[in-house]
Amino acid sequence: MALNPRITVWQGRTVWLIGASTGIGRATAALLHAKGAQVIVSARHVPALQAFVAAHPGSDFEALDVSDSAAVYAVAARIRERSPSGRLDMVVYCAGHYQPMRAQTFDLGEALRHQQINYVGALHVLAATLPWLTEQGTGHLSLVGSVAGFRGLPKAMAYGPTKAALNNLAECLYLDLHPMGIGVSVVNPGFVQTPLTAGNDFDMPALLTPEQAAHEIVSGWHAGRFEIHFPWRFTLWLKLLRHLPHAWYFPAVSRITGG
Predict the structure, then answer these.
(1) What are phi and psi of 20, to 5 degrees?
(2) Domains in the chain, please, with CATH?
(3) Tens of pLDDT along 68-125?
(4) Rounded Cα gap, residues 80 and 156, in angstroms
(5) What angle do CA 213, 215, 219 make, to 5 degrees?
(6) With contact defined as beta carbons under 8 Å apart, do 37 and 18 qualify?
């Protein structure tokens, strides 16, 4: 069942992707550009953004630190001024930070860095774009979460809670914005081969390339899904674990992950 308006045509659509210098964000931006979208990519790493624009003629970039609220407002205003149609058809929040962390090695500064980039940055983007989207009465917001946000996992003490917050936030946004005709989706990937996962010292089952992830995401928007999770052979098992009582869940996860 489609919970959002299906996006089947990208030609002429203006899409702002935040967190698009590498990995899933970059691959998704490249795929949408190939489909005819007017793509604006943002991230902190300017050389990567410049390289993307050079490789994808007609795209644009805006350097951005999502933890800087004023900068987010300024970039959104510039995008609005330059938009040929005056519309913002899609905002994709893919900015992310990840470092494994356990309680025994808790680092407050690192935990707060996760919060600022993974969650607070999304709030800054919402503050800058929601008035525009609600004024035009169309568009789509997509937040990139993670299966790590489903339930507590080992080594995910800093990362998992921020992705759980994005899932809850997306549900709240959907309830408010769907009646206005604005789409909302949350993307919960499994393991994807990116700079964020490169440092993992454990086996990553069903590992996907960023390009495979991008195709799954765009297919989800095409189908009008609210939650886009993949690969199903991995995420469906995690969804099943999500419904176990704690007395079963904790031993099962400890056994599966080795504690």
Answers:
(1) -115, 20
(2) 14-257 (3.40.50.720)
(3) 999 999 999 999 998 877 899 999 999 999 999 999 999 999 999 999 999 999 999 9
(4) 37
(5) 120
(6) no
Q: How far apart are CA 213 and CA 116, in angstroms?
A: 24
Structure tokens at 70: 């004023």
- In this structure, the strands spanning 90-93 and 140-144 are parallel
Whether the full predicted model's pTM is greater than 0.90, yes or no, is yes
Q: Read off the amino acid at residue 226.
A: F
**Distinct helix (H) and strand (E) counts, the chain:** 9, 7
Q: 3-state DSSP call for residue 220? A: helix
d(CA 219, CA 176): 24
Task: Tell me which residue has tokens 């600022």.
Answer: 116
pLDDT digits (tens, 9 = 90+) for 196-231: 655 555 565 557 899 999 999 999 999 999 999 988
